[in-house]
């Protein structure tokens, strides 16, 4: 199935401490998938391990029965804003243009068509008027839109976004989730590390609920069950229940 992902018996540890323990699941294409769990559950670690950004102790990851190396150009990754150097002297347009580089090959510079694509992606996220700004001059929500535009310029089939809604304005969040749903509707597969449980029903098709191990993977309503949420969030469960986020 196109744009699918299979994770089998994935284990990751840091300095002998288990971060991910024997995680296995398989996804279908054309899905918007949220990765949820308490702080320290390993959500970002899972995403980085899938993408080969950190080493794993054991396990296999495949994309449409292909390896990461074979399909890497078809994968777009938007990291957490906190790990990005916002003082780097690069403009908004040039940042988005970086998304075209995986398809250019070595020693090739972006063509006029690549620059037009980058500008179109800026228009899609509503940031075309900021094209000549330095990325550090933007607000958090604007910065997140720029990096989504960069991912769009890559013309990928699988998208991985790590906490894209943290510290951004409501307008930017609405723009981003609208675009992610459009990608899903176009047959792309989108993974999002997410923390706001009050919005998961509106945002996602499927959920990966985890706390170092996989608690449950499946449609949102099957995952948002009290016994599963209690297992994942432990002492935080009563607070979540009082917030009305448990179905």
From TrEMBL:
<keyword id="KW-0813">Transport</keyword>
<dbReference type="InterPro" id="IPR003593">
    <property type="entry name" value="AAA+_ATPase"/>
</dbReference>
<dbReference type="GO" id="GO:0016887">
    <property type="term" value="F:ATP hydrolysis activity"/>
</dbReference>
<feature type="domain" description="ABC transporter">
    <location>
        <begin position="5"/>
        <end position="237"/>
    </location>
</feature>
<keyword id="KW-0067">ATP-binding</keyword>
<keyword id="KW-0378">Hydrolase</keyword>
<dbReference type="GO" id="GO:0005524">
    <property type="term" value="F:ATP binding"/>
</dbReference>
<dbReference type="Pfam" id="PF00005">
    <property type="entry name" value="ABC_tran"/>
</dbReference>
<comment type="similarity">
    <text>Belongs to the ABC transporter superfamily.</text>
</comment>
<dbReference type="InterPro" id="IPR017871">
    <property type="entry name" value="ABC_transporter-like_CS"/>
</dbReference>
<protein>
    <submittedName>
        <fullName>High-affinity zinc uptake system ATP-binding protein ZnuC</fullName>
        <ecNumber>3.6.3.-</ecNumber>
    </submittedName>
</protein>
<dbReference type="InterPro" id="IPR027417">
    <property type="entry name" value="P-loop_NTPase"/>
</dbReference>
<keyword id="KW-0547">Nucleotide-binding</keyword>
<dbReference type="InterPro" id="IPR050153">
    <property type="entry name" value="Metal_Ion_Import_ABC"/>
</dbReference>
<dbReference type="InterPro" id="IPR003439">
    <property type="entry name" value="ABC_transporter-like_ATP-bd"/>
</dbReference>
